[in-house]
Amino acid sequence: MTRRLHLAAAVAAFALAASACSSGQAAGDGDVDLPDPVVDTEVTTPIDYVAMGDSFSAGPFIGTMRSDPQGCARSKDNYPAFVADWLDVASYTDVTCSAATTRDLYEPMVMFDGNTTGPQIEALSEDTDLVTLGMGGNDFGIYDSLIQCQRGPAAVCPVERLRADAGKVAGRVEQAVRRITKAAPDAEVLVVGYPDILPTEGTCKAVGVPAAVLAPVADVAGLLNASLRRGARAAGASYVDMAAVSDGHDVCAKGRAWVNGPKLRIGVAAPFHPKVNGMRAVASEVFREVTGEDPEEITEYAEPDPDVIVLNEG
């Protein structure tokens, strides 16, 4: 288990050698004072959880969208909601926002609807115990460029620039984690990587381009995740490696796919974004990182206690 979030600690118990009768006499020979029975109990640490990130954490168009604020396109069934549910947290604050960059951790962000939401880092406090951070792909326009590369000929894909930009994300993530740690000094910080969106080998109809075009895109995606890992470790955070577990669940995996294809599907997911099964998969990895154990139950939908949800302004 992690240093801060030991979810359960067993209280030491003493075995009874015998039991006393109703008169108080020992069942064995002689007058022996026997210890009172000690019942094993579970001591839990209430977790104040804050989720930060971009659309791969927010979950645009998965099921029902939250309205606090509406412009972030934040799902009630994103992976932070599953994590909050399965960990039975004391408080749950989700400030993930679609299209966010690391800059939006510290500055107000203009959302899809033209309204503004505050810096994500303002959700943290000295009481925060757990932070998940899933972002970096929107920095330098990396994600949008990758989608354009996937749609167009290889000749127009600025692969070398994208590789360089992916490498720069490590410094931004390191800075983000250090600032998060300063605002929430006792928190366990987990940087969550991106799952495989496109196949690492071959192609399919859902992608619509030859494997030769796809290969540089997959290469940059791998460099981006490597950058997230590097930045997390440099600042002392844990890294949740989704690429390692999402192999075979990319957009070409049909019924096993954790990500949506190129079409917007209201209620399912945004194009090339995780579906609800993908969110459950991320939540499972986060849960394992926090507790060292598998979730007792993988629920179909996220149902954190309404009383623990902290609603955001906007």
UniProtKB/TrEMBL annotation:
The keyword Kinase does not apply. Keywords: Hydrolase, Signal. The keyword Signal applies. InterPro entries: SEST-like, SGNH_hydro, SGNH_hydro_sf. Pfam families: Lipase_GDSL_2 (PF13472). GO terms for molecular function: hydrolase activity. Residues 1-20 form the signal peptide. Residues 51-281 form the SGNH hydrolase-type esterase domain. PROSITE patterns: PROKAR_LIPOPROTEIN (PS51257). SUPFAM superfamilies: SGNH hydrolase (SSF52266). This is SGNH/GDSL hydrolase family protein.
